[in-house]
Amino acid sequence: MSVPGIGPRFRTSRVRAIAVGVVVLAELAIALPFLFVSPSTVRGVPGPLLVLLGVASAFVMGPRIGAALTAFAVLLAVVIVGENAYTEPLVWIPVAVGVGIVGDRVRRGDDLRRALLGELRRGLVTVSREPQVGPYRIVSRYVPAEEAQVLAGDFYGVILEPSGSVAVMVGDVAGHGPGAAAVATRLRASWRGLASAGVPASEAARVLNDTMLAERRRASLPMLFATLCLASIEPDGSKACFVLAGHPSPILVAGGGVDEYVLETDPAIGITDHPEWTVHDVELPAAPWSLVFYTDGLVEGRSAPDGPRPFGTARLHELLAAAGPPLGEGDVDAVLAAVSAANGGPMSDDIVVVAVSPA
Amino acid sequence: MAQGDPGSIRVEGDGSAPWVLELHGEHDLSTVGAIHARLAPIADRGEAAVIDLSQVTFIDSAVLTELIASRRGREDGGGARLAIVAPPGGFPARMLGLLQLERVVAVYESRDEALASFEPAA
User: Fold this and answer.
1) N or C: which end of chain B has fewer CB within 10 A?
2) A345 CA: distance to closest CA in chain B (Å)
């Protein structure tokens, strides 16, 4: 979950020393040839180039080292190249110090931004990816959107309820950016509390919806809604129940085929007051089977590189049926690889996949 | 395999009648900015707009959020009077149905119906 940063960072003093050495060598490489040729033939080029190099190094290496490198560059320009017009040391050294301070600030802001993004993303998923919860094997994947600077709002969680059932939650805050990610982390934390206290899924959906509406009204937040699938799977593997809030139904992979449950969904979370959330009870077959929960990023990529969208659920069904239950780590990775290959370019949305199978 | 159709927007109207924003092709986060640029002034003036999704082959929740966010009923009291056109069976109609957004914005099967909804009752 790394976030692209601005500019290079020197992690050790040794790397920094090498960088300083490279700049010094570059400055010497520009200046030294002028010991052997007449400076007048190329007048107006090397002086500014040396000063530019010094000032640029200040941006990367901070005010002190930058000022020293700039002073060295100015010295070379005056002594060796013999250019005085561009080499007023009293001007360029303070400039290098200023640029170095700006560079430090940019980097500090950038470090903070990266830390915040990383922290938000970590808040969206289960911190430790438990391979087993209660009697079930869990394979989960969170693939952040690959397009630069996109912070989307997919989230999920799997926990053991007090009754011994396993609660699964997969959600997607519509929209992108820090606002969506912040809402996603709040929803996930709230769900975790409700599910660990044994609150039934329909009740949890109502609470999450009311909370989101109340928060928006109080803080006059812009329109944001989230889709959710909440599930509870009984410990003996015979039954499960789902609550859907504008979210795709889970898929059952069993007996050489797949079933996508055709279930009426309730509205997405955060749109409107909705006191009654439908609980869909389903019977599960004898093992082996896998229940697959996912967010729409999995089926909304391109159907082929440069081809039309969406990838579609029909092809997802084919992939899952071919893999067969129980779905292992390799099976889920193969599905993700197929989706990514069909899309061609970077995926524009987050993807969450959670496959639950009796251990 | 058919080529993906990049999203485009056509705006009709001069403010005397409801604006019509006709979206074509595929719309996702990459076109949200363009849609916002067209819709925000209409929303700020509180005018009426028909969003015609008949020609849309793909739309995601980021775009739908943008549409819903501009409708009248915003917490600040502003917003456009919005009607969405999504013929049944199309991708946009399936998305609107899944999210049940028809609970908060009027969705019509044809543009004529949407335009008629803005006419004062006889």
Assistant:
1) C
2) 13
CATH of the domain at B61: 3.30.750.24
Residue type, B29: L
Residue A300 with chain B: CB contacts under 8 Å: 28, 58, 60
| pLDDT single digits (tens) A115-166 | 887 777 777 765 556 789 999 999 999 888 876 555 668 899 999 999 999 9
Give the chain B residue nearest A268 (alpha carbons): B99
- Mutation target to probe the A interface, by most A beta carbons within 10 A, among B28, B58, B95, B100 is B100
Is residue B14 included in any domain, yes or no? no
pLDDT digits over A251-278, tens only? 999 988 898 888 989 999 988 899 899 9
Highest mean pLDDT among A183-187, A249-253, B33-37: A249-253
Q: No. of H helices and E strands in chain A?
A: 8, 11
Distance of CA B86 to the CA centre of its chain: 9
Question: How many residue pairs from chains A and B have C-beta atoms closer than 8 A?
Answer: 89
| Residue A232 near residue A167, CB atoms below 8 Å | yes
Question: Among A51-60, A350-359, B7-16, which range has the highest average pLDDT?
Answer: A350-359
Residues of B in contact with A147 (CB under 8 A): 29
* Phi, psi of A333, rounded to the nearest 5 degrees: -65, -35
Same domain? A317 vs A215? yes
Domain containing A90 equals 13-118
Residue of A nearest to B27 (CA): A309
Same domain, A107 and A163: no
Do the domain assignments include residue A351? yes
Question: Looking at the structure, do residues A40 and A131 belong to the same domain, yes or no?
Answer: no
Bridge partners of residue A227, in order along the sequence: A172
Residue A310 falls inside a structural domain: yes
The interface pTM score, or ipTM, of the predicted complex is: 0.80
The pTM of this model reads 0.78
Cβ separation B65–A175 shorter than 8 A: yes
Whole-number pLDDT of residue B1: 38
Instruction: Give a yes or no: residue B36 inside a domain.
Output: yes
Evaluate whether A293 touches A231 at the Cβ level (below 8 Å): yes
The DSSP bridge pattern shows strands A239-245 and A257-260 to be unpaired
Strands B48-59 and B81-85: parallel
Residue B15 covered by a domain? no
Report how many domains make up chain B: 1
What residues 264-293 of chain A have any CB closer than 8 A to a CB of chain B?
A: 265-268, 271-272
Cβ distance A271 to B5 less than 8 Å, yes or no, reads no
